[in-house]
# Entry
Amino acid sequence: MNKDIIGVRFLAMSHKTRSILECLLAALLFGAAAPASKLLLGHGSPFVLAGLLYLGAAGGVLPFAFHGGAPGLRRERRNLQNLAGAIFFGGIAGPVFLMFGLARAAAADVSLWLNLEAVLTAFVAGIWFREYLGSRIWISALLVVTAGIWLASPQSAGSLDAAMLVTAACFCWALDNNFTSLVDGYTPAQSTLAKGLVAGSVNLGIGAVIEGYGFGLAESAAALVVGAFSYGASLMLYVAGAQQLGATRSQMLFAVAPFAGVVLSWTAVGEPVTSGQIGAMLLMGVGLSFMLTSKHKHEHTHEAMTHTHSHRHDDGHHSHSHEGLPPWTRHTHPHNHEPMVHSHEHGSDLHHRHRH
# Structure
Protein backbone atom coordinates (compact mmCIF):
# COMPACT_ATOMS: atom_id res chain seq x y z
CA MET A 1 0.00 0.00 0.00
CA ASN A 2 1.23 3.51 -0.82
CA LYS A 3 2.99 5.12 2.18
CA ASP A 4 1.19 8.43 1.62
CA ILE A 5 -2.19 6.66 1.84
CA ILE A 6 -1.14 4.94 5.06
CA GLY A 7 -0.07 8.30 6.51
CA VAL A 8 -3.37 9.96 5.59
CA ARG A 9 -5.35 7.11 7.12
CA PHE A 10 -3.32 7.36 10.32
CA LEU A 11 -3.95 11.11 10.57
CA ALA A 12 -7.63 10.65 9.80
CA MET A 13 -8.29 7.96 12.40
CA SER A 14 -11.03 8.76 14.88
CA HIS A 15 -10.10 10.83 17.92
CA LYS A 16 -11.12 7.87 20.11
CA THR A 17 -8.77 5.48 18.30
CA ARG A 18 -5.94 8.01 18.43
CA SER A 19 -6.49 8.54 22.16
CA ILE A 20 -6.56 4.79 22.83
CA LEU A 21 -3.21 4.38 21.03
CA GLU A 22 -1.75 7.29 23.02
CA CYS A 23 -2.77 5.68 26.31
CA LEU A 24 -1.40 2.28 25.27
CA LEU A 25 1.98 3.72 24.25
CA ALA A 26 2.08 5.69 27.50
CA ALA A 27 1.45 2.42 29.36
CA LEU A 28 4.28 0.61 27.59
CA LEU A 29 6.74 3.39 28.39
CA PHE A 30 5.63 3.60 32.01
CA GLY A 31 5.78 -0.18 32.35
CA ALA A 32 9.52 -0.03 31.76
CA ALA A 33 9.98 2.32 34.74
CA ALA A 34 9.75 -0.26 37.55
CA PRO A 35 12.40 -2.72 36.31
CA ALA A 36 14.69 0.12 35.19
CA SER A 37 14.33 1.87 38.55
CA LYS A 38 14.97 -1.41 40.38
CA LEU A 39 18.36 -1.63 38.67
CA LEU A 40 19.19 1.95 39.73
CA LEU A 41 17.98 1.83 43.34
CA GLY A 42 21.15 0.28 44.69
CA HIS A 43 23.12 3.44 43.94
CA GLY A 44 21.34 6.07 46.03
CA SER A 45 18.31 7.35 47.94
CA PRO A 46 14.75 6.60 46.74
CA PHE A 47 14.04 10.33 47.13
CA VAL A 48 16.98 11.22 44.89
CA LEU A 49 16.00 8.64 42.27
CA ALA A 50 12.39 9.90 42.27
CA GLY A 51 13.70 13.44 41.80
CA LEU A 52 16.02 12.47 38.93
CA LEU A 53 13.25 10.56 37.18
CA TYR A 54 10.93 13.56 37.21
CA LEU A 55 13.62 16.04 36.25
CA GLY A 56 14.29 13.71 33.32
CA ALA A 57 10.57 13.84 32.53
CA ALA A 58 10.74 17.63 32.42
CA GLY A 59 13.71 17.48 30.08
CA GLY A 60 11.95 15.00 27.83
CA VAL A 61 8.94 17.23 27.20
CA LEU A 62 10.75 20.58 27.21
CA PRO A 63 11.03 20.85 23.38
CA PHE A 64 7.23 20.47 23.11
CA ALA A 65 6.25 22.88 25.89
CA PHE A 66 6.87 26.26 24.22
CA HIS A 67 3.73 26.44 22.11
CA GLY A 68 -0.01 26.17 22.69
CA GLY A 69 -2.13 26.59 25.77
CA ALA A 70 -3.83 29.70 27.09
CA PRO A 71 -1.99 31.96 29.55
CA GLY A 72 -5.24 33.46 30.79
CA LEU A 73 -6.76 30.08 31.67
CA ARG A 74 -3.50 28.91 33.24
CA ARG A 75 -3.80 31.71 35.78
CA GLU A 76 -7.32 30.77 36.83
CA ARG A 77 -7.55 29.53 40.40
CA ARG A 78 -9.37 26.32 39.44
CA ASN A 79 -6.67 25.27 36.99
CA LEU A 80 -3.85 26.20 39.37
CA GLN A 81 -5.47 24.10 42.10
CA ASN A 82 -5.89 21.10 39.80
CA LEU A 83 -2.29 21.38 38.62
CA ALA A 84 -1.01 21.75 42.19
CA GLY A 85 -2.90 18.60 43.17
CA ALA A 86 -1.41 16.70 40.24
CA ILE A 87 2.10 17.89 41.09
CA PHE A 88 1.89 17.01 44.80
CA PHE A 89 0.20 13.62 44.52
CA GLY A 90 1.50 12.48 41.14
CA GLY A 91 4.96 14.02 41.08
CA ILE A 92 6.10 14.21 44.71
CA ALA A 93 4.29 11.65 46.88
CA GLY A 94 3.51 8.87 44.38
CA PRO A 95 7.03 8.32 43.01
CA VAL A 96 8.59 8.30 46.49
CA PHE A 97 6.15 5.65 47.75
CA LEU A 98 6.90 3.60 44.62
CA MET A 99 10.67 3.82 45.05
CA PHE A 100 10.47 2.68 48.69
CA GLY A 101 8.19 -0.17 47.62
CA LEU A 102 10.61 -1.19 44.87
CA ALA A 103 13.44 -1.31 47.40
CA ARG A 104 11.51 -3.98 49.33
CA ALA A 105 10.13 -6.24 46.56
CA ALA A 106 10.83 -7.75 43.14
CA ALA A 107 10.23 -5.50 40.14
CA ALA A 108 7.70 -7.95 38.66
CA ASP A 109 5.63 -7.95 41.87
CA VAL A 110 5.68 -4.15 42.00
CA SER A 111 4.73 -3.88 38.33
CA LEU A 112 1.69 -6.05 38.96
CA TRP A 113 0.66 -4.26 42.15
CA LEU A 114 0.43 -1.12 40.02
CA ASN A 115 -2.84 -2.50 38.62
CA LEU A 116 -4.45 -1.13 41.77
CA GLU A 117 -4.05 2.32 40.25
CA ALA A 118 -6.78 1.59 37.70
CA VAL A 119 -9.31 0.54 40.34
CA LEU A 120 -8.48 3.41 42.67
CA THR A 121 -8.75 5.85 39.75
CA ALA A 122 -12.23 4.54 38.98
CA PHE A 123 -13.26 4.90 42.63
CA VAL A 124 -11.93 8.45 42.92
CA ALA A 125 -13.42 9.46 39.54
CA GLY A 126 -16.86 8.11 40.36
CA ILE A 127 -17.15 9.37 43.96
CA TRP A 128 -15.19 12.61 43.89
CA PHE A 129 -14.97 13.81 40.29
CA ARG A 130 -18.46 12.79 39.10
CA GLU A 131 -17.31 10.55 36.26
CA TYR A 132 -19.90 8.16 34.84
CA LEU A 133 -19.18 4.48 35.54
CA GLY A 134 -21.19 1.85 33.70
CA SER A 135 -21.57 -1.81 34.65
CA ARG A 136 -18.96 -2.96 32.13
CA ILE A 137 -16.42 -0.57 33.65
CA TRP A 138 -17.03 -2.09 37.08
CA ILE A 139 -16.77 -5.64 35.69
CA SER A 140 -13.50 -4.64 34.03
CA ALA A 141 -12.19 -3.16 37.27
CA LEU A 142 -13.19 -6.30 39.19
CA LEU A 143 -11.35 -8.59 36.76
CA VAL A 144 -8.24 -6.43 36.73
CA VAL A 145 -8.03 -6.16 40.50
CA THR A 146 -8.72 -9.89 40.89
CA ALA A 147 -5.82 -10.64 38.58
CA GLY A 148 -3.66 -8.17 40.48
CA ILE A 149 -4.48 -9.79 43.82
CA TRP A 150 -3.80 -13.23 42.35
CA LEU A 151 -0.39 -12.13 41.17
CA ALA A 152 0.51 -9.85 44.04
CA SER A 153 -0.19 -12.11 47.00
CA PRO A 154 2.73 -11.59 49.42
CA GLN A 155 5.18 -14.44 49.00
CA SER A 156 8.12 -13.38 51.16
CA ALA A 157 9.03 -11.44 54.31
CA GLY A 158 8.56 -7.75 53.79
CA SER A 159 6.12 -8.14 50.89
CA LEU A 160 3.21 -6.73 52.90
CA ASP A 161 5.15 -3.54 53.61
CA ALA A 162 6.05 -3.24 49.94
CA ALA A 163 2.44 -3.84 48.88
CA MET A 164 1.21 -1.10 51.22
CA LEU A 165 3.79 1.35 49.87
CA VAL A 166 2.87 0.60 46.26
CA THR A 167 -0.84 0.88 47.13
CA ALA A 168 -0.15 4.33 48.59
CA ALA A 169 1.62 5.26 45.34
CA CYS A 170 -1.37 4.02 43.34
CA PHE A 171 -3.78 6.09 45.41
CA CYS A 172 -1.63 9.18 44.85
CA TRP A 173 -1.61 8.54 41.11
CA ALA A 174 -5.38 7.95 41.13
CA LEU A 175 -5.78 11.48 42.49
CA ASP A 176 -3.20 12.74 40.01
CA ASN A 177 -5.04 11.13 37.07
CA ASN A 178 -8.28 12.85 37.97
CA PHE A 179 -6.71 16.23 38.69
CA THR A 180 -4.76 16.07 35.42
CA SER A 181 -7.82 15.23 33.31
CA LEU A 182 -9.43 18.50 34.54
CA VAL A 183 -6.45 20.81 33.93
CA ASP A 184 -7.35 23.40 31.29
CA GLY A 185 -5.16 25.97 29.58
CA TYR A 186 -2.04 23.78 29.57
CA THR A 187 -0.90 21.49 26.81
CA PRO A 188 0.09 17.97 27.93
CA ALA A 189 3.76 18.93 27.56
CA GLN A 190 3.33 22.08 29.67
CA SER A 191 1.58 20.30 32.54
CA THR A 192 4.21 17.54 32.48
CA LEU A 193 7.01 20.12 32.45
CA ALA A 194 5.55 21.87 35.51
CA LYS A 195 5.13 18.58 37.35
CA GLY A 196 8.63 17.39 36.48
CA LEU A 197 10.45 20.58 37.44
CA VAL A 198 8.64 21.17 40.73
CA ALA A 199 8.33 17.56 41.93
CA GLY A 200 11.79 16.56 40.70
CA SER A 201 13.49 19.48 42.44
CA VAL A 202 11.61 18.90 45.71
CA ASN A 203 12.39 15.18 45.91
CA LEU A 204 15.98 15.63 44.80
CA GLY A 205 16.50 18.28 47.47
CA ILE A 206 14.87 16.17 50.21
CA GLY A 207 16.96 13.13 49.32
CA ALA A 208 20.23 15.05 49.12
CA VAL A 209 19.65 16.63 52.54
CA ILE A 210 18.43 13.50 54.33
CA GLU A 211 20.64 10.76 52.85
CA GLY A 212 23.13 12.44 50.51
CA TYR A 213 23.16 12.33 46.72
CA GLY A 214 24.88 8.97 46.21
CA PHE A 215 24.45 8.52 42.45
CA GLY A 216 27.43 8.65 40.11
CA LEU A 217 27.46 10.42 36.76
CA ALA A 218 26.52 7.30 34.75
CA GLU A 219 23.65 6.37 37.11
CA SER A 220 22.39 9.96 37.14
CA ALA A 221 22.36 10.07 33.33
CA ALA A 222 20.56 6.72 33.16
CA ALA A 223 17.91 7.92 35.62
CA LEU A 224 17.34 11.08 33.57
CA VAL A 225 16.92 9.03 30.37
CA VAL A 226 14.47 6.66 32.06
CA GLY A 227 12.55 9.65 33.35
CA ALA A 228 12.45 11.31 29.92
CA PHE A 229 10.78 8.30 28.33
CA SER A 230 8.96 6.42 31.11
CA TYR A 231 7.60 9.53 32.85
CA GLY A 232 8.01 12.46 30.43
CA ALA A 233 6.85 11.02 27.11
CA SER A 234 4.49 8.64 28.92
CA LEU A 235 2.81 11.38 30.96
CA MET A 236 2.44 13.64 27.93
CA LEU A 237 0.79 10.87 25.92
CA TYR A 238 -1.42 9.90 28.84
CA VAL A 239 -2.66 13.47 29.42
CA ALA A 240 -3.56 13.80 25.74
CA GLY A 241 -5.53 10.55 25.88
CA ALA A 242 -7.18 11.25 29.24
CA GLN A 243 -8.53 14.59 28.07
CA GLN A 244 -10.38 12.79 25.26
CA LEU A 245 -11.39 9.52 26.96
CA GLY A 246 -11.90 10.54 30.59
CA ALA A 247 -9.83 9.47 33.58
CA THR A 248 -11.36 6.03 34.14
CA ARG A 249 -11.27 4.75 30.57
CA SER A 250 -7.79 6.09 29.92
CA GLN A 251 -6.54 4.58 33.18
CA MET A 252 -8.01 1.18 32.34
CA LEU A 253 -6.00 1.27 29.10
CA PHE A 254 -3.00 2.34 31.11
CA ALA A 255 -3.41 -0.88 33.11
CA VAL A 256 -1.47 -2.75 30.42
CA ALA A 257 1.70 -1.14 31.81
CA PRO A 258 2.36 -4.11 34.12
CA PHE A 259 2.62 -6.37 31.06
CA ALA A 260 5.64 -4.45 29.85
CA GLY A 261 7.03 -4.18 33.37
CA VAL A 262 6.81 -7.92 34.02
CA VAL A 263 8.36 -8.88 30.68
CA LEU A 264 11.29 -6.54 31.32
CA SER A 265 11.61 -7.88 34.85
CA TRP A 266 11.91 -11.38 33.42
CA THR A 267 14.41 -10.43 30.73
CA ALA A 268 16.42 -7.45 31.98
CA VAL A 269 16.36 -8.13 35.72
CA GLY A 270 16.34 -11.93 35.46
CA GLU A 271 13.33 -12.63 37.65
CA PRO A 272 11.52 -16.00 37.23
CA VAL A 273 8.45 -16.57 35.05
CA THR A 274 5.46 -18.15 36.80
CA SER A 275 2.31 -19.77 35.40
CA GLY A 276 0.26 -17.64 37.78
CA GLN A 277 1.57 -14.45 36.21
CA ILE A 278 0.67 -15.64 32.71
CA GLY A 279 -2.83 -16.73 33.76
CA ALA A 280 -3.52 -13.46 35.52
CA MET A 281 -2.36 -11.49 32.51
CA LEU A 282 -4.99 -13.30 30.43
CA LEU A 283 -7.61 -12.33 33.01
CA MET A 284 -6.48 -8.72 32.77
CA GLY A 285 -6.89 -8.87 29.00
CA VAL A 286 -10.51 -10.01 29.41
CA GLY A 287 -11.07 -7.20 31.87
CA LEU A 288 -9.70 -4.60 29.48
CA SER A 289 -11.96 -5.92 26.71
CA PHE A 290 -15.00 -5.10 28.87
CA MET A 291 -13.75 -1.53 29.26
CA LEU A 292 -13.10 -1.11 25.54
CA THR A 293 -16.62 -2.28 24.66
CA SER A 294 -18.36 -0.12 27.27
CA LYS A 295 -20.95 2.22 25.72
CA HIS A 296 -22.74 5.24 27.16
CA LYS A 297 -25.23 7.19 25.05
CA HIS A 298 -28.10 9.59 25.86
CA GLU A 299 -29.34 13.06 24.99
CA HIS A 300 -27.34 15.67 26.88
CA THR A 301 -26.84 19.43 26.98
CA HIS A 302 -23.59 21.35 26.57
CA GLU A 303 -23.48 24.78 28.18
CA ALA A 304 -21.55 27.65 26.58
CA MET A 305 -17.92 27.59 27.62
CA THR A 306 -14.43 28.79 26.71
CA HIS A 307 -11.39 26.60 27.29
CA THR A 308 -8.15 25.30 25.80
CA HIS A 309 -7.17 21.71 25.09
CA SER A 310 -5.98 19.40 22.33
CA HIS A 311 -8.86 18.85 19.86
CA ARG A 312 -9.90 18.10 16.28
CA HIS A 313 -12.71 19.49 14.13
CA ASP A 314 -14.31 16.17 13.19
CA ASP A 315 -15.49 15.09 16.66
CA GLY A 316 -18.92 16.74 16.74
CA HIS A 317 -17.97 19.29 19.42
CA HIS A 318 -15.61 21.68 17.65
CA SER A 319 -17.35 23.32 14.72
CA HIS A 320 -14.91 26.20 14.19
CA SER A 321 -12.38 25.92 11.37
CA HIS A 322 -8.93 27.10 10.34
CA GLU A 323 -8.05 27.84 6.74
CA GLY A 324 -5.76 25.15 5.36
CA LEU A 325 -6.02 22.86 8.42
CA PRO A 326 -7.57 19.40 7.76
CA PRO A 327 -10.40 18.59 10.22
CA TRP A 328 -8.59 15.49 11.56
CA THR A 329 -5.45 17.41 12.59
CA ARG A 330 -5.12 17.75 16.36
CA HIS A 331 -4.07 21.15 17.71
CA THR A 332 -4.39 23.30 20.83
CA HIS A 333 -5.69 26.87 21.22
CA PRO A 334 -8.37 28.83 23.15
CA HIS A 335 -11.83 28.29 21.66
CA ASN A 336 -15.51 28.88 22.43
CA HIS A 337 -18.37 26.38 22.57
CA GLU A 338 -21.93 27.44 21.82
CA PRO A 339 -24.81 25.77 23.73
CA MET A 340 -25.73 22.43 22.16
CA VAL A 341 -28.15 19.55 22.75
CA HIS A 342 -27.40 16.22 21.04
CA SER A 343 -27.04 12.48 21.57
CA HIS A 344 -24.02 10.28 20.91
CA GLU A 345 -21.73 7.77 22.57
CA HIS A 346 -19.38 9.50 24.97
CA GLY A 347 -17.19 9.09 28.02
CA SER A 348 -16.50 11.46 30.89
CA ASP A 349 -14.06 13.77 29.15
CA LEU A 350 -13.61 17.55 29.23
CA HIS A 351 -16.97 18.03 27.49
CA HIS A 352 -19.01 15.42 29.37
CA ARG A 353 -18.85 15.86 33.15
CA HIS A 354 -22.32 14.82 34.25
CA ARG A 355 -24.11 12.12 36.20
CA HIS A 356 -26.60 9.86 34.46
Residues 5-12 have pLDDT under 50 and may be disordered. The radius of gyration is 20 Å. The chain has one domain: 12-297.
